[in-house]
Amino acid sequence: MQPSGLSDIARRTRGAVASHNRNAGGGPLSKYILTLYVTGTSPRTKTAIDNLSRICAQELEGQYELEIVDVLEHPQRAEDEKILATPTLIKQLPPPLRRVIGDLSDKQKVLLGLEVRAASPASKHGT
């Protein structure tokens, strides 16, 4: 009965993000602009969306906008962004532009790739 599983997930994610942004009150420079490129509604897609949603909620404290793009529905956009593998997360803002490829299950690598400092100093590791 679902028209498209990914469309439903994307709608819910964007709605949640929009309400976070309204409540945050931060300036435009403090907001992260993220785009997650995925392929269909595979388990890997769901894992990446779940992992990213959790990381954003814990570490970005509502200071983000997240767009989910299915490369099967928007192949030209994926080509324009030179997406060679999915899932791929792109941080547009704040500069510099950064990419993280994979299911985003390693929180520390995602934070490092996006140049986001973890909320807790105890989470730093010397490896």
Q: Nutshell version of this structure?
A:
With 127 residues, this protein is of the alpha+beta class. It has a single domain (5-118), classed as Glutaredoxin (3-Layer(aba) Sandwich), CATH 3.40.30. It has helices at residues 5-24, 43-60, 75-80, 107-114, and strands spanning 32-38, 64-70, 88-93, 98-101.
Assembly annotation = single chain
In CATH, what is the class? Alpha Beta
* Shape, per Cα inertia axes: globular
The fraction of residues in strands falls at 15-25%
Helix-and-strand structural type: alpha+beta
Q: Tell me the strand order in the biggest sheet.
A: 2-1-3-4
CATH superfamily: Glutaredoxin
CATH architectural category: 3-Layer(aba) Sandwich
Q: What's the overall average pLDDT, rounded?
A: 78
Rounded Rg: 14 Å
Q: What's the order of the H and E elements? A: HEHEHEEH
Q: In words, what does this structure look like?
A:
- With 127 residues, the chain is of the alpha+beta class.
- The longest helix has 20 residues, at 5-24.
- It contains four helices and four strands.
- Strand 1 (32-38), helix 2 and strand 2 form a beta-alpha-beta unit.
- The protein is globular, with a radius of gyration of 14 Å.
- The chain has one domain (5-118): Glutaredoxin (3-Layer(aba) Sandwich), CATH 3.40.30.
- It has a four-stranded mixed sheet with strand order 2-1-3-4.
